[in-house]
Amino acid sequence: MAFVQQSSPHARNARPTSRVMLWVIIAALPGLLAQVGFFGWGNLINVVWCIAVAVGSEAAFLTLRKKPVAFFLRDNTAAVTGLLLGLSLPQFAPWWVSGIAVVTAIVIAKQLYGGLGSNPFNPAMVGYALVLISFPVAMTTNWAEPSGLFNGAPDFTDTLGRIFSASQTSFDGWTMATPLDEYKHQIASHTAAEVLNHPMFGDGIAKGWEWVNLAFLAGGLLLVFLRIITWHIPAGFLGGLAVMSLAFGSNADQYAPLTLHLLAGGTMLGAFFIATDPVSAATSHQGKLIYGAGIGILIYIIRTWGNYPDAVAFSVLLLNFAVPFIDHYTPPRTYGHHKPRRGVPGRNQG
Amino acid sequence: MTQLWDFAGGIHPAENKHQSTRSPIRDAGIPDLLVLPLQQHIGEPAEPLVEVGERVLKGQKLADVRSGIGVPVHAPTSGIIESITERPVPHPSGLDDWCIVLRPDGEDQWRERQPITEYRKLERETVLERIREAGISGMGGAGFPTNIKLRPPKDRKVDTLILNGAECEPYITADDMTMREKATEVIAGLKIMAWILRPERCVIGIEDNKPEAIEAIKTACEGTQIEVAVIPTKYPSGGEKQLIRILTGLEVPNEGIPADIGVMCQNVGTAVAVARAMLEDSPLISRIVTVTGDAVREPGNYEAWIGTPIEHLLTKAGVDEKKLNRLVLGGPMMGYTLTTTAIPVTKTTNCVIAATAAELPDPPTEQPCIRCGQCAEVCPMELLPQQLFWYSKSEEFEKAEHLNLFDCIECGACSYVCPSSIPLVQYYRYAKGEIRVQRAEQLKADRARERFEARKARLEREQEEKELRRKERARAAAEAQARKQAEAEQAAETGDATDDRAAKAALVQQALERKKAKVATGEQKSAPEQDDKPDIEALEKQLTQARSKLETMQRMLDEAKEQQADNVDKLERAVAKNHDRVARAEQALQEAREAPARNTENQTSD
């Protein structure tokens, strides 16, 4: 009789990576729905296009690297990268801009580093940062106005045509600056009340954006509830952003208010879906808190004193750089030890 | 209510305990042969005290450890010693080890017994010695000799004695059934251990998924100070470090033992063994084993003699060999797979799982680690399994060690939840093994260096001493010279110059003679070197070596030619060269053989 020889444990009950990624996609759907509701078909078309390019370029590169294509595609990670870019890019971003972003993300930021699990930087944000720096006009003039799907926004065909047409005809009637951008530029010469008078801020904080952010918050909380992510990164992220805003920007006549920071731009998407990419994030609970807080603080700094209206991509990438450093100083205290063993072997041992 | 604490992490695997608790403990019966490994405990292996062919009685000591840590092995029943041989033993390596093989005679005849109920009147040392003599080692898993554990270091006082009835691993119900059916013996054993240690607190920890056991133990504890702590079911609550944390809120210090914080853990099975050793004078010759899994028709617990082959238990439980796919000794989390059913039950065997392929399926293909951190969330030792994996895989062992690799208890919780189905524990075992090898090598290298340095120091010392002696001699010579000169001067003052010249001539003559003598001894010394015998031997050896090398080369050449390899040229040259070498060696040998005659001639002519 020949019995199976295996090392322990013999029992397993894991949620496979593919299902984890599927849950991330599901949790992002409320946000996508809100985007479509307030900003039109742009995001949905972007998402579908980006996922297609992501999976295609992943398959192509896996083939080049002589890796089992089906085995790796089944983990759904390429789809998630595509999804995140589709959700972050401007609604009317031309197809080639989003295409370049996705190919950069998959090929340069992921596969060239060794594929899944080996990338030091968040692939989606590498792609985003590249197109933001390379095509600033396309990336700032293609944001849809929050008129809502049912309020005269361009219909599906128009949007499709706009995204995939070669000519960049003026689309002024449909696009506008983002609330964060608008506030930052107007507050220099106006009072808060005057700035908020603009219809893009709606009745509350930032028309449309607030609901999109709340929807991503809901999806993110689902991920925390399902224990796919822990609360540490989002808490550090939002906490860092809030503390900075309260410490430096409490005067609404000078700086954007806290509510705008939390519920406009890519805040919630960044806090729950982007910064939480486990591969490129810090490791321990303490490390994750510091990592998240670092992103939140940098977002505030770049939004307020930098040249870019939003800053999730840059902040995440800068903190990706800091991960080895953070990990170095934030290992957990192991059972039976007085203190954590920080630093490198042979030094500072506790 | 006992105050409880929680430990970090942990998982809730499917319990699968109900299959084996449906029927009471059954007698495993008499197998044809009993195979008794000489090492069933941590420490030195026991040495046989009996001869092959000897008839032994039930409870008779068959082997004992003469020096060092260890406990004896006893005959579970009366019978004949059939052999003392190497047999498969329960060990993850699957290697064989020395065993005494006993053929039961069916009479089950006891040796003389002297039960002691009034142990409180004895010296504690006497009781501890009796526990040792009964061959008791920890029955929870590790098998550490109980008498040694019950004698903590002198400067450590055990305040809390914990009886571990958590039995957190899925499938295993041996402790559960022991507590249900032998609660009185469990408590009796606990009382003996408590009497030895005199702790302030005695507590039994049982997971809340064993209501029957809890009830039975509570009843048995009535009227005593013993606490029964019902702890939440969470794997691995039965790990010693975890259970101590749950029941005391304390942590066993890194590289320390529980006694360092005034705690000791004992297993319920061990308690029963202690009670039997004392109250019945029955050594540890049987234990409760859970036989379960979908490949047996009647899963349950069996009281089996130590040495009973697993095969016998599987037959008793009605194994379906067609369905049996994986045979696990121990639980599904920490047990190891067996290659054969011939291995015997030992003092630490608590469970045998005869699993079907559907029950414990092969893990899916390993995927890359995405550092999701699920493993860190469930790690009961608060480690970073994802980092340990990374460093183990990349063989950066120093970093793995720095992140407390050696604190890993290999509970398997990390592998259990890993979304990428990475066999994490296997990586840690590999890294630990490599580090141990490196340490051993380092130790060896250190010793070699010490030896070398000691030798160098010795040589230097000797050199210095030599130098010192030489100086001493030189000084003495100079003094003598000075004395002589003084004498000569005195003589010159008194005598004539011709004497001086004569003395000088004599000195020259002396020196010449010395030189001659030296040359002669030198020749004598070099004479044995001309001895031709070893020469011939060496030459013969050279010749055989050269011949064998030539053969190998020739063979390689033939092979290369057959395969039309591109190194044929090279090999041909090598063969030619070796041909020459053999020829030269033959010639040299020939000459050497003829030489003796000449040599003797030379010598006689000398």
UniProtKB/TrEMBL annotation, chain A:
Its EC number is 7.-.-.-. Its cofactor is FMN. The keyword Transcription regulation does not apply. Keywords: Cell inner membrane, Cell membrane, Electron transport, Flavoprotein, FMN, Membrane, Phosphoprotein, Translocase, Transmembrane, Transmembrane helix, Transport. The modification FMN phosphoryl threonine is found at residue 178. Pfam families: NQR2_RnfD_RnfE. Part of a membrane-bound complex that couples electron transfer with translocation of ions across the membrane. PANTHER family: ELECTRON TRANSPORT COMPLEX PROTEIN RNFD, ION-TRANSLOCATING OXIDOREDUCTASE COMPLEX SUBUNIT D. The complex is composed of six subunits: RnfA, RnfB, RnfC, RnfD, RnfE and RnfG. This is Ion-translocating oxidoreductase complex subunit D.
Automatic annotation (TrEMBL), chain B:
Its main location: membrane. It comes from the Bacteria. PROSITE patterns: 4FE4S_FER_1, 4FE4S_FER_2. It is a peripheral membrane protein. InterPro entries: 4Fe4S_Fe-S-bd (IPR017896), 4Fe4S_Fe_S_CS (IPR017900), Ion_transpt_RnfC/RsxC (IPR010208), Nuo51_FMN-bd (IPR011538), Nuo51_FMN-bd_sf (IPR037225), RnfC_N (IPR026902), Soluble_ligand-bd (IPR019554). Residues 470-487, 526-538 have a biased composition (Basic and acidic residues). Residues 356-389, 399-428 form the 4Fe-4S ferredoxin-type domain. Residues 470-502, 515-538, 577-606 are annotated as: Disordered. [4Fe-4S] cluster 2 binds at residues 379, 408, 411, 414. Its EC number is 7.-.-.-. Its cofactor is [4Fe-4S] cluster. It is an enzyme of class 7 (translocase). [4Fe-4S] cluster 1 binds at residues 369, 372, 375, 418. It is found in: Cell inner membrane. Keywords: 4Fe-4S, Cell inner membrane, Cell membrane, Electron transport, Iron, Iron-sulfur, Membrane, Metal-binding, Repeat, Translocase, Transport. Binds 2 [4Fe-4S] clusters per subunit. Belongs to the 4Fe4S bacterial-type ferredoxin family. RnfC subfamily. The complex is composed of six subunits: RnfA, RnfB, RnfC, RnfD, RnfE and RnfG. Part of a membrane-bound complex that couples electron transfer with translocation of ions across the membrane. This is Ion-translocating oxidoreductase complex subunit C. It comes from Marinobacter koreensis. The gene is rsxC.
